[in-house]
Every structure is written in structure tokens, then in C-alpha cells.
Amino acid sequence: MFINLSTRFVQNCAKQTLGNFVRTLSNVQSKPLPSEELADNKKDYRDKNIKVQLLKEMLNLRLIEAASIVSKPKFSKITSNSINKNYNLCLSHKITQARLKQFPEILAEEKLADKIELVKQLPFTLDHTAALLNIPTARLEKLMHEEELSQRIRFLSTFFNVTEKQACAWMATRRFLISLKEEQIKEITELLLRFGLDKNDISKDFWVLKYSKATVENRLKQVQESNAGKVKTWMVRAKPELFENYVKRQSERKSVLGDNSFAEYLCNKLGCTRETAEYIILKLPVLQHKCLIKLNSIIEYLVENGFSTSQICSNPRILLHSLETIKKRMERLKALGTQPDFLSVLTRSQKNFEDKPPCRFKDKLASS
């Protein structure tokens, strides 16, 4: 469906914009703006809102999605009329709305007609190659002249067993895939496959292909030797200190868990049923990623201070706090002459702990 940017459409957008602008100004307490600056702000705000409403209508977007697209620098340099013309131009060349929704910045191209004529020279459907319209004109002309694009599209499509459309989408968002040597892509991919990754894993993190074979192989061997679990692409890219910290945490985790699962660990440590352990994990999934040595220390400290494991199971959120925070709160309450007999006091936010202590200690806490 072609869009006609009618006068009524623009007027309605302008009215809505003016109302929003006035409401925004009324909520801002600042020095009055010079009349020229105020007029410019109104115009910019109105133009932006027209673009937002236009994209919302064209691509069937939510308002927040359209606003997010228009906030990109590329859209500040183009008029709403040009966006409208680009949209109709794309439809006339059978570039689908779905494709434009996936790559909306195509609509902000200043010389879109020229780029379309270039990309049409490729031996593929234009809707499949539309993502390449986002490549800067000078580079696109050079690639077309050297006939690199069609070869690279076929290579990526065949090597990763995906459609030509998907290959073009990758090249538009990860432009180094256009210039990276085929031999390097093959070599690094085959190396990663040998260490247990698959091509789907690699396609989610193509940056790993930019590293040298020696760097990739060295890091993968480190992962294997450290018994740090399943190899992942980020491990190759991670800084040495981050990788070493991960290996250390995995080693500590294995020393605590052994061959048990995290649910079995909770069963043994808290003396609870498997169902209770799984419920705790479901309720607090982030708990699985907590350092198990620290978790051990928290459970042991709570038990030593009179809390039962059943109390911990009833209020597992306490395990998300640091041992240092728990100790400080326990010491504060003990200094007031009391031993808390329920964990909910210790799991409150810092503000609530200070502002809303148990009623029988309120006066003492307030005066301390």
C-alpha cells in the first residue's frame, strides 16, 4: 500500500506535537528561552513527531518503536517527505514492508534510487539484497565494481547453510564479513567446530572470526584444560582477566557441586525436598549464578546464628544478599539487645531496614 503524505496528516501531527511540546515546557522549570530558540525547538519537535507518526503508519509499528528509530542520527538529516518518497520507491521495486521493518534505516537514505540501481545488478531478488542498501554509497560502488558482493553472498549462504536473504542481512550489520578473507572464515569456523561449537553459535557472534588462528586455538585449549565447561565464543574474545576470573569461579563451583546439579546441592545443604529446591530456583533463577563458596558461607552463618534451614527455604531471598550485609544487620540488631527470629527483617532494602524496623525496636533504631 502506497502512502500519500497528505496535508491533513501533517496538520494532525503538528497539532499533536504542539500539545506535547507545550505540556513538556510546562513541566520544566528553567530560564525562559529566547523566542528564536523556542521557535526552532518547536519546529524540530514537530518535524520529529511527523516522522514518528509516519513510520508508525508505514511499518505498522508501536509508537515507542517508531520513536526509537527516528532518534537515530540518520533520520535527523532527512525530511518526512523524503522518507515517504523512499517508502513508495521501495514498494515500487517490490521491497516488502517486512524487509523495511527489519532495516528501517533504508528509508533515511538520501540517494536511495541510485543505490537501488546498483544493488539491482546483483543476480538476486532485490527484496533479499535490500539490507545492502544501508552500506555507504562509495563502498557499495567499489564492491559492485570488483564483483565481491555476489561472490560473498553465495559463499556465506552455502558455508553457513542459510538463505541468501540471511547472508545479506549479516553483511549489512557485520560489514567485516564482506572483506574478511574466505580462508580465515573457514579456518576459524572449522577450529571452533572441533572444540564443540556449531555454526549457529558462530553466527550469533561473528566477531570471533576476526581473531587469528593462534589466538583462538590458544584460548580454546585454555578452556579445555581448565575444565571450565562448554566452550562459548565470548571466551575467545574476553580479556585475560575476565576469562581467568570465569575459570576460577567455574573451578570453585565444580569443587562445591561435584557431580551434583544445583538443585541437588540445595537439597543437601538445606535438607529440603527436590520440589522445594526447584521452586526456589524457579522463584530466584539468579541464585544459580551466585558464587557457591559465598552461598555456603551465608547458609552456615545463618544456621550458626539460630536460623533453621526451613526458615531459609521459606525466605530464600536472604541468599541473594552478601554475607557482609547480613552480618552488619545482625550486629546492629544484637547491639539493640535483640536476636531476630525471622529472616524477613534481614531481607529488606537498606531504606526499609532503617525506616521500618520491627515495631518493638523502632524507637531504639531511630535514636541510634
TrEMBL record:
Keywords: Transit peptide. The keyword Transit peptide applies. GO terms for molecular function: nucleic acid binding. One of its GO terms (cellular component) is mitochondrial matrix. Gene3D superfamilies: Transcription termination factor 3, mitochondrial. InterPro entries: MTERF (IPR003690), MTERF_sf (IPR038538). GO terms for biological process: termination of mitochondrial transcription. PANTHER family: TRANSCRIPTION TERMINATION FACTOR, MITOCHONDRIAL (PTHR15437:SF6). Belongs to the mTERF family. This is Transcription termination factor, mitochondrial.
